[in-house]
Predict the 3D structure of the following.
Amino acid sequence: MTKEQIKDTILKIIAQIIPDEDLSNLKDDIPIREQVELDSMDFLDIIMELRKRYGIEVPEDDYIQLATLDSSVAYLEPRMREL
Amino acid sequence: MHYDVLIIGAGMSGLAAGIRLAYYSKRVCIVEKHYRVGGLNSFYNLGGHKLDVGLHAMTNYVPKGVKLAPLPKLLRQLKLKAEDFGLCPQRMSVIKFPDKTLRFNNDFDFFVQEVVDNFPRQADNFQNLLKTIFEYDELNLYAKPISAREVVSSIISNPLLSNMIFCPLMFYGNAQENDMEFGQFVIMFKSIFCEGFARPQAGVRQILDVLVKKYKACGGELKTRCTVTSLKCANSRVESILLENGDVLTADRILSSAGYVETMKLLTDHDSSKFNCHVGQLSFVEFILVLNKEPAEMGYNTTITFYNNSGRFDYRKPDELVDVSSGVICCPNNFQFENHLPEGMIRITNIANFDLWNRLGEEEYKAQKAAWLETTLKEVMKFVPDFRDSIIFTDIFTPKTIHRFTGRINGAVYGTPNKTKTGRTHLDNLFICGTDQGFLGIVGAMLSGISMANLHILQKI
């Protein structure tokens, strides 16, 4: 996957978890949870979906890496490059 | 057979935990001792009538579109839609004490106004109480327990108002006699007064049907009539699970909704002196009365009546079989349903003494049920129109019945007063969810299953 595709994938996952939120204006460098109603339980589901769909394991200590779209793409790129 | 996770009990919390785990591809099995799911919130058919146990009303109701509340949170976590439970809001409920009545519906401002109108001199104090409630983080799993009686009486100076607020909160979820942990008070206050009551047209069946279907669709396995006899321990872990039919299962992790003490008693290394945990004392008797007409036809439109007839409000195990001086009258017909329910119904719930009921011989047990029905009916006639001539069918369950079907020690529906909020036990792979973990009500029970599955299983790789 390219970086663009990875970002797209994350956005699709978020859209599935919180279908009522408008994600079109989401800024890449601001924590996602500051921009949309996404509680810690919803956030966990992003990690779970990554595991379920792509077999990517994000250890608990690394959850913080997925705070913004930019940091998520940076963290996931080496793990999703070959997909 | 080996599983990633074995869940003990197919009640609200076990099923909700099961859905989370199965959805995220864990190999899960739920074992339930009864032939039917539901646990403390279940249903049965008797004499051609469909009856519910547990659920009077689902608390935590918020209309579709509200996002930041336990109910929508739970629906998102279980990948369910608001329509799936088919919840219909209540009409009006009341708290009736000698000389005072407070009404409440699902509009919180209405309740606040009721308090101000009935207790004008407590208006400022009540606002202060609300401030304290809203500032408290009731979901903090590591908070130190504090007494709700102390907090509330330090703010509300009129004991009558204080008791009237406590009454529904205690009846709908408090495991502790006379007092309540403040975090639990906040959870119950929000779930009943700030949010509200609703019920699916088909009662608890509808909620359980949705949960079971979802769980199975996700690939979860459910074994009913399957009793766990013991949990074999070694090296700080549960190594295997022995079933009554002789089968042995193994699982990486075990989530038990059977109750904390009830679960500890299953352990092969169980040493009762090591466990400093009180068992719950509070149980209930419920009188289920099927009527040949709807209570509304007799002019009774109230959904739930919480009453107290005595000068004080005692929420404790009574010295008699039943304490009829306070109780709950639920009318399942009085929700805003699209269609009428098939039958008129009134359910009366009173606090009862497990030991006294359990001690009775068969004949005496029957006779006492009939006698207490008369007594409680006489008492509740102060609050409802006299419907006694309209009763066409009666069933009564006691603390003994609850114990028989759920395995709860003392028939204590709200479990132990000492909640295990983190869900952890002294064993590395055994966790507690449900009533004894400490989120309350039906929505709370499901959230308990979800949180414990998230915290102890999904977050761990």
Observations:
- DSSP finds four helices and no strands in chain A.
- The mean pLDDT of chain A is 94.
